[in-house]
Amino acid sequence: MLVNEMNRVAIGDMVRRTAGRVPNKAAFVDGDVELNYKQLDEKTNQFAHYLLNNGYQKGDCIATIAGNSYEHAIAFFGLAKAGMTWVPINPGISLAEKQYILEEVEATTILGDPAFLFNNLEDFKHYSLYVFGDEAPKAGTSFISTLENQSTEEPEVDIQDRDIAQIMFTSGTTGNPKGVMISHQSVFIASLANIIEIDIKPHTKATIMMPMFHCAQHTFLASFVHIGATCVVIKGFEPASLMQTVQDESISLMFALPIMYKAILFHPNREQYDLSSLDTCVYAMAPMDRSTLEKGIKEFGAKFALGTGQTEMYPATMVFKPEEQLRRFGSYWGTSSLINDTAIMDDEGNILPDGQVGEIVHRGPNVMSGYLNNDEASEQTREFNWHHTGDLGYWDEDGQMVFVDRKKDIIKTGGENVASIKVEQTILNHPSVGNAVVVGLPHERWSEAVTAFVVPAEGKELTKEEVISYCKEHLGAFQVPKDVLIVDELPMTTTGKIQKHRVRTQFQSHYMQGNPMERN
Fold first, then answer.
1. Coil/strand/helix, residue 431
2. How far is CA 98 from CA 76, 212, 272, 487, 497, in A?
3. Looking at the 3D structure of the chain, how many domains does it have?
4. Is residue 316 domain-shared with residue 403, that is, in the same domain?
5. Residues in domain AMP-dependent synthetase/ligase (predicted)?
6. What percent of the chain has pLDDT over 90?
7. What percent of the chain is predicted at pLDDT more than 70?
């Protein structure tokens, strides 16, 4: 008999209930491995028992440093069933950041991929290591071996809905990363809302291509497991390989970045692959340029939807729905998820009327429990009893949210405020542009100069003059970049976000005394 089973809300229960409904349904397809829901439920139970039988206590923090795999999924669902706290660490961050996170949560154990663990083996020697993969590890313990001889029955653990299920760390662009504490309730309820908002069905076959350690992919994975869909694990993005997988596996739901959809749609061999199985295409992290969106809807015959949120406000928080996609273009976030209240607020805490720009604030069960060991920062996000996102936006006349920019990314130039994202969207609509970012750089005359960094589309040639001319056609004079730098690549996070802070830091002296652009 499970403890407090009558009315509890717990992430692990999602797995058990789905296994009870569709035990033989494929839960994960990961290369040659296929795991049904009965097997997923049993293996997560076995891992939970292993932890509880080996001295780990409810509430202990256990970290993962890993890419996408069915083992990674077993690990975090097993941790949830054991009442422990999952701490996913982005493998792409620096060793110093990894060590900071491990110390901050007082972790003693790391689960992960061999490449990520053994590259820093000396630095991780004081931790218990459990290694994903089929091969015998050169150090630590095989993760799969922990499941042997353990009970397949659900462990008896008293789990409350507000218990912390996971601590996900922010990117730390202005200092050490902050640990966002997320409860069982937040993940559980957000997963149900996503099922309704995105119209996920039990027969859905979905990609798990974005990183599992990131909130965006994790929340969808939880939704897929909750409804009993099939998750197809994809390790990394390569357009031709992905198209082959969509064709072979009859993928019906794909979650990807706009730049990924663009790479697929404009791939020279696109016509060689049958992508007709696609029914729903979800994108996030950035708006999609008009040409890519129109081409995607036409060629795939699929519904496109944008989901937004943040680690602190477990996604999806707002959805720009399929029926709105071709009615309006720009940086639209759509309407609130059915579990959220959303408002626009000024700096004094006043709720603003439609059409006025202010900070986007939310309320709902998916608000974080707070930042780990940082009460001051937690309180700042909760001022006026709303969760503050740091994003600026406004409601349009049809009740659709328009995202203006991050507060910190607004460019103050010559007495005007320029939304960097508006300039980026304009540049991205140029047919020869593959990717772009716009930042404000220090300038003696303008205070901040609007500056664009542009990556040409594959096989295309592009000049600074072409981009500026295009911007002059579509933007106000004060919004046109003072300079455009054509670059081969932009600094990106492993989750696909352009690291604007790195661009600003690297080029902060671009308009120094003597630079020809000083005269613009």
1. coil
2. 18, 17, 42, 30, 19
3. 3
4. yes
5. 16-372
6. 82
7. 97
